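Question (not urgent): is this output format expected?
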Amino acid sequence: MDSGGFQAALAALLLLLTATQAKAESACPSDMAAAGRVSCIDRFEAPNREGERPFTGKTAPEGEAWCGLQGKLLCTEDQWMEACEGEEHRPFPYGHSYEKSRCVDEKTWIPPNWGAIASYPAEAGKREIERLNQSEPAGSREGCATPEGVMDLTGNTAEWVLATRPHPNGHRHVMKGCYWSGCYGGSAPRFGFTNPAHPGGFRTYEAGFRCCSPRPQTLPAALPAAGPQPAFACDPTVHPAPNAGLSEAPGDPGCPDGMARIGAGASGPFKTFCMDRYEASLVELTPEGERPWSPFHNPGPRKVRAVALEGAVPQGYINGLQAAAACAASGKRLCTSSEWLRACSGKSGPGGRIYPYGNTRRPGACQDARAKHPAVELFPGHPNPFSMIQHACLNQLPSSLARTGSHPECMVPEGAYDLMGNLHEWVADEAGTFRGGFYVDTKINGEGCRYVTTAHTRPHWDYSTGFRCCAEL
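Got this back:
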């Protein structure tokens, strides 16, 4: 290539990289704004609706659960601070000098009745929290905004966050942003103020929260190269619907559609129950009726229900709270860990089969041995490809997620498929547990049916997290 051609190619490459970076940096959903380079934060305190008063009297676990049902996470302290300070390290949302009443931070303090608050959820507790509530509708103080459009980060409600910096007491959660009567101790409400006094389960009248999420990532456009380019192409903003036209088959006797009887004829205290034959898919409930939800995207706050379909792409990208709600919307529930183990191994405790099909591993029987991790394959030059595990294109790579029932040997005698491999499956555990491994691995955390992951809380989701439902017989 001559010097002129080289310069032209270099200029085109720089333009492409600039456009790609700009697209990635503007990728937050419309109800969220950038919090640093890798996160998005809700524009308003929960429930994140302009013109509505924020939640008050909430605990940190309640915030985590609510955010989880939206497909988001309670903000970490670092995410919250990045949104507040911006790159210029502002001490206040609007600049470097405090302006009283620009945010909701000037209300006269009302002494609380802590005994009444402690009685929550009794009516006396609810009434006391409402009596003390001096919050204003979200966004009503237009000047209390960051340049990125995040409102009420100081004042209005104190916001629970997941602590990521050292504090006295060492609690897992702290409160940021002060509240409608300013900061505890009377200092000006600034970003740096933290209330570390209470554990996250403590209920106080002024406490709310907001949600964060990783910033959606876009695949860079293909760069010029001398050799042939890979055939795979994927747009993560598109919502494919590969399960359109599929419907649930009748269930086994006594079971809802799509479900198998597990434990029929078994002796002992363990009851026979119903379990989805296949890993679950989702349908969205709309005013116009049901429609398939894309299995490559988290459903967020949409109303969805679980279905068990043969030949479907099962739903990844879902957290444990959403999975439980989707089962409930279909009149079912998440399987308990004992039920799941009973179905996979034939016993609810130690012993039983190691694999759904027996005690000797059969390579290829289940979808469980992809040679390369999908994030490493999709982002070969990324400094941390495992930060991209919510990317919608991961499960669209060839030889990744298999359609339900496509591995007939990966079936237990009662007719439930893919309990090993394909997707991790959430079970009903408050702490957060999924079982069975996924299409890359069914060994690291236990062999086959004994594979169990406990590293994540229920609001976690990524490309590999799926579920199935159970029901009483």
